[in-house]
């Protein structure tokens, strides 16, 4: 059994991941900004769960949490960068401070965690880094431009990271969930305060007051957790793991559309090299 470090364990997929890993006998550093939200996991698994306070945008807390987990368990074998939240706005509506906070959490928070954990993984020449993305990075729906951009950045970083770490015996992978029945589209979803009327029929339809998806998403967080732990334990983790029928369908549609554009404009694309 190994040691997992999972960010954002208070609710949703992060909590499901932590619970599944604990049930399988792994040791898990369960983290959340509010420690009381993960105390029940520690109470249920006193020998294998370590509750830690963690805001991934605070580099001091990142360093302290990784140090505490390493000291307590001896090593970290799997890092799951799950902490995050949704933000919806038309690109023009996006508020500078809110957008920076979104990127601080999803992109720079992920980077901080990776940098803190990798020295230990490099020393032991083993480990797995799991970075949570979203099908949004692939389909870029109206109203989710900033969230999709943040997750696309995570995916690009992860692919480079995977290539850099492979010779060291370490794996990096990205997970793209579809719609799962969590708080993501409810409590965890933020949005621009001031909508612009011209976007009512595009981004406006996905504002919280107009979105009826919350509570009806097809994805089961428990099954997602089983799938993720299975993949990590397989020692053959892919670069990109889709979770959910909607995610698999959407990425195939997106790839088909991209190939269509490539085929349509191939002559133009190939016309720009020196003869």
- The SS-based structural class is alpha/beta
Number of domains: 1
CATH class identity:
Alpha Beta
Average pLDDT, rounded to a whole number, is 94
H-E string? EHEHEHEEHEHHEEHEHH
Rg over CA atoms, rounded to whole Å, is 19 Å
Return residue spans where pLDDT drops below 50 for at least 5 consecutive residues: none
State which percent range the strand residues make up. Answer: 15-25%
Q: What is the architecture at the second tier of CATH? A: 3-Layer(aba) Sandwich
Number of strands: 9
Helix content: 40-55%
Going by CATH, what is the homologous superfamily? NAD(P)-binding Rossmann-like Domain
Task: Determine the number of helices (DSSP H or I, runs of at least 4 residues).
Answer: 9
Bulk shape: globular
**Strand order in the largest sheet:** 3-2-1-4-6-7-9
First CA to last CA: what distance? 58 Å
Enter the CATH topology name. Rossmann fold
State the major sheet.
7 strands, parallel
Can you summarize this structure?
The chain has 275 residues and is α/β, with parallel strands linked by helices.
Features:
275 residues, Rossmann fold, seven-stranded parallel sheet, two-stranded parallel sheet, 16% strand, KR_dom, oxidoreductase, oxidoreductase activity
Molecular structure report:
It holds the Pfam family adh_short. Residues 2-178 form the Ketoreductase domain. This protein has a seven-stranded parallel β-sheet with strand order 3-2-1-4-6-7-9, with helices on both faces. Strands 5-8 form a two-stranded parallel sheet. The radius of gyration is 19 Å and the shape is globular. α1 (12-23) packs across α7 and α3 (59-73) packs parallel to α4 (96-124). The N and C termini lie far apart (58 Å). The model has no long low-confidence stretch (mean pLDDT 94). It is an alpha/beta fold and 275 residues long. 45% of the residues lie in helices and 16% in strands. β1, α1 (12-23) and β2 form a beta-alpha-beta unit. The chain has helices spanning 12-23, 39-44, 59-73, 96-124, 136-139, 145-165, 221-233, 245-264, 266-269, and strands at 3-6, 27-32, 49-53, 78-81, 86-88, 127-132, 170-177, 189-191, 240-243. It has a single domain (3-244), classed as Rossmann fold, CATH 3.40.50.720.
